[in-house]
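call fold(seq) -> C-alpha cells
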Amino acid sequence: MSQPQPNSQQQHVHYMQVPNGQPLPSQHQQQQFIPLMGPPPPGVQLIPIQSPPNGLHQAVHFQPGTIPTFNPQQRPLPVQPYLAPHVPPQGNLGRPLSQVPNQWSDDASESSITMGVDPSNPNAPPLPFPKEPRQQTLPPQIAAPPPPVQDTISPSSPTSGGIISNLKRTLSRKNTQSSQKRANVPGRSYALDQPEDANGPLNKGNTHAIMALLADIWFINTILILGVVYLVTFIIPGNLTDAEIWNTGCYWKIGWLLPTPYTLICFAGLIMPFRTPRFIYHDGLKKRRCDNLYILTVTRGNNREAVYRSWNAHRHLERLHPSIRVHVLTDEPYFFENINCYTCPKAFSTARSKYKARALDWYRQTMRYTEHDWVLHLDEESVIDDESVRRTLEFIWYETEFHMGQGPILYNQHQYWKNWFFTVADALRVGDDLSRFQLQLTYMHRPIWGCHGSFLLVNGLVENSVTWDLGSLTEDYEFAMAAWARGFKVGKVPGLIREQSPQGFLDFLKQRRRWFVGIFRLKHFLPKLWAFTWFIGSLCLYSTLISIPLDVIFGPATPRWFGLIKNLTMVTFVYLYVMGIFIQDVDKGKNPFLVLLHVPMTIVLQYFAVCMETISVMYACIFPPKDFDVIKK
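ret:
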C-alpha cells in the first residue's frame, strides 16, 4: 500500500495554549509555536491557529469553554519520527514552522506505512500481518548523506586561512562528527536486522488459553470461596458460639477484621465475570485510527542482560503490523548499539520529574505524539507475546471509549520458582490484578486504585495533556490520577505481560517501601486512603500473634458472626495467593502434578509472604526512602 501524500492546498488548524486572562499572542509569537494537542490543563485556554499554505498563522475566535475536535482528514498523514542523523535538531529553534525542514521519515523503519487501518474504509477488518519483510527504502536525507569531512591540513590552500584556522576547523568538524555518533535518537530501525531465532520467538506464552480460562473462572471462584467459608464456619468444629454476640475475646481479635475492606473489594472482583473480547469484536465494528503503537521498554540501562533479553524478545514484533515500533528508553550514559535505543540526555530537565518520569517526558517530546499514537509502557524485565500485542491492537481499534488501558501482569518470565518465598509473595500481585484491578478496569473504568507502570497503554492525547513532569516516587499512580481528573477513562486490555520477581530480601523491602511511601505522599485523597488501608491491613499479623496466647490463657469462644467475617477475609486473602500461583503455573506450562503440588505449598508459604509484606510496611514507616530505589532483578 502506498502512502498518500497530503494535499498541499488544504488548511490545517493547530491550537496554542494561553493562560486565561493573558492577551492573545502576537503575529510573531504565533509563528514560533509548536502544536501540542490534548485537553488544556487547569487555567489554560486553547487559541486556534490556522496554518495556510503560505506558512503564516492567523488567530481565529471560537466559543470559550469548548475543547475543539480534530478531524483526521484535515491533518497531514503522520510520519515515523526517526531523526536523520546529519540534521542538527537544535538548528530549528526559534524558526517559523514554515521554514523548518522535514526531519522525520517513516521510510527509515522496516514498516512502510504508519496506518493501522485503511482510512478510506473505517469498517474494514484489520490489515493482515505480513509474513515476509518488505523492502526497505531509505529517505533522501539518509540515502544521500553529505560528503565525508576531510581532516587533512593544507596550509597552502587559498581558502584555508592558515594552519591555526585550519586546525580549528578540523577540530570543530571532529567534534561535530563525535556528537553525531552520540545521537540520542537512532537514524533507522534495527528491529529486523537480525534473523529470527531458530527456536522461534523468545516471548512465548499461553495468553489465549489463560484468557479463555479467566473468562469462565468467576463461577469457580464463587463456589470455592463461599464453599470453604461455609465449611470452616458451620461444618468443621471450632471455637465458635451462638450464645453471645460480643465477649471479651473480641477486643483482641478485632485485628482479624482489619484487612476486611481490601478482601471484600477483591472478593467482588473475583466473583464478577472477567470480560474478554470473545463474542464482542467482529469485522463489522468501526475501528479507531492507529498510526503508531510504540512498545517502549523503559530502563535505566545498567542491567545490560535484562535490556538485551527484552530487546531480543520484542524486536520481531515490528513484523506483526505496520504501526508497531519497538523502542528502548535509557538514561545517559547508557546507550546500546544496533538496537532502537533512545537515550535521555543528562542536560534534559523538567520542573519536577526525575529518573524514569524525566526520561518518559523527554521521549514524549522527542516523538511528538498525536491523538492517533499509542504507547505501551514496559519495564526492563517485561516481555509481551504476539497474542497480547494483537489483543492490544484490537483494544485500540475497537474500545473507542477509552484512552488508557491496562492488563494483568504475571511474574513467571525469568527465574520462576527459583526462590519459593519471593515467587509466592508476588503471587498476591497476580491475584490482585485478577480481582481488584479487574474490577476497576472492567466495570468502573476509573483508576480508583491507580495503575501499574508496566503494561500501561496510553494514548498520545493523554500523554500530551498530563505529561510526565510529576515528581513522585510512584509516577504511574500519579499519572493515572491526573488523567482521571482530566476526564480520561481506562479499560482492560485482555492480554498478559510477564515479568520476574525480586531475588533479594532487601530489594523486596525497598520495592514495597517505595510503593507504600510514594502512594501515601500523593496529594489526592484516594491514594492516601489506600495507603492507610494497606497499613492497617498489615497490623492483622500482630493481632494474630497476640490473640494466640490470650486464647490459650482465657479461651473465650468467638461469636459466630464474628468468625464468619474473619473466615471470609482469611479465605479470600489466601485464595488470591493460590489463584496467582495456579494461573502462572498454567501459563508456564508446568506439569499438572506440580500445579497441584504448588497449591498446598502456597497455602503454607503465604504466611511467610505476609510476614515479609508486614516488615516492608514497618520498614517504610521507620526508614522512608529519600530517593528513587532501583532494585536488581
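The first strand starts at residue 12 and ends at 19.
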